[in-house]
Amino acid sequence: MTMLDLLVTNAPIFLLAAVRCFALLMTLPLLSMRSVSRVAKVALAGYMAYIVLPHVNYTAYSAYLLASGNFSIEYLLCLIGEALIGIIMGFYISVIFSAFSTAGQFFAFQMGFSASEVYDALSQVENPLMGQYLNLIAMLIFLQSKWFQLLFMKGLVSSFESVDIFGVLSGSQRLAQFMMSGLTDLFADALIISLPLMGTLCLISVCMGILSKAAPQMNLLSEGFPLMTSLSFILLTALMPDLCDFFISAFETGFGKLSLLLSQLSGGGL
C-alpha cells in the first residue's frame, strides 16, 4: 500500500494528526510569528501529518468513528483534544523561551533600557531591548543545536505513538502540576541568568550613591548612565559563553521534563 492509499483510507486519522501539528505550529516560537502566513502553517501541518502518519497509534479513537467512515460529535471532540495536546507542547516550549526574555527585563531597568521597548515578533509582545536580545540568542542556539529538528523528528513522533486525549484527561492533575512547575522554572531560570548583572549593577549604584554623598559637586547623574550601560555590555560579553551553556542546559532540562510528562500520560516509557 502506497502512502497515498494510506492517506485516503485513513483520512480521519490524518485529520487528527494534522490538527495536533497545526496547534503545535500556532504556539511554537518562531513559527507562531504573524509574518508566517496561516496558509504556510496549514501546509506545513499537513506535510508533518503525512510524514508521521505511519507512526500514529489511534486505536483509542476507532470507537468514535462511524461505521460509514463519517464523522461524529465524539470525533469532533477528539479533534479538540488533539489541538489541546499540540497547544500544551508548544506552550511549554514558549515558557522555556520566556525565561530568557524575562531575564532581560530584570536587568534592563538597571541598565537604563527599560523605557526602550520594541515589538518582539517571537513572543508577539512589547519587550525591552535586552529581553529581545537574549530571546534571539536563545533562538539561535535552539536552531544551531538541532533542538528544532529533535522536537519534530523525535518528540512529535513519540507523542503520536503514545499519547492521546484520554491519557491527558486522566492525568489532568499531573498536567496542572507540570504547568505550574514550568512557570516556577521560568522565574528561577530568569533569575539565574540575570543575577550576575543585577548584582553588579546594584553594587555600582551603591558606589555611585556613596560618591555622590562624599563629593556632592560631582555630576554623577550624567556620568552614571553611560557607566552602567558600558559595564553591563562588557559583563554581558564576558558571561556570554556561560549563558550559552546555560541556555543549552535549560533546553535539555525542559525537553527532558516534557518527555517525562508524555511518558507519564501514556502510562509507559517513550
Give a written overview of the molecule.
The structure is a single chain. The chain is mainly α and about 270 residues long. Helices cover about 75% and strands about 5% of the residues. It is built from nine helices and two strands, in the order ααααββααααα. The chain has helices at about 5-10, 10-25, 40-50, 75-110, 130-145, 145-160, 165-170, 170-215, 220-265; strands at about 115-120, 125-130. It has a two-stranded antiparallel ribbon with strand order 1-2. α4 crosses α5 (about 130-145). The relative contact order is 0.12. The model has no long low-confidence stretch (mean pLDDT about 75).
Salient structural properties:
2 strands; mainly alpha; 270 residues; two-stranded antiparallel sheet
Q: What is the topology?
A:
Blueprint: H1 3-9, H2 11-27, H3 38-52, H4 73-111, E1 117-120, E2 125-128, H5 129-144, H6 147-162, H7 165-170, H8 172-214, H9 220-266
Antiparallel strand pairs: 1-2
Helix pairs in contact: 2-3, 2-4, 4-5, 4-8, 4-9, 5-9, 6-9, 8-9
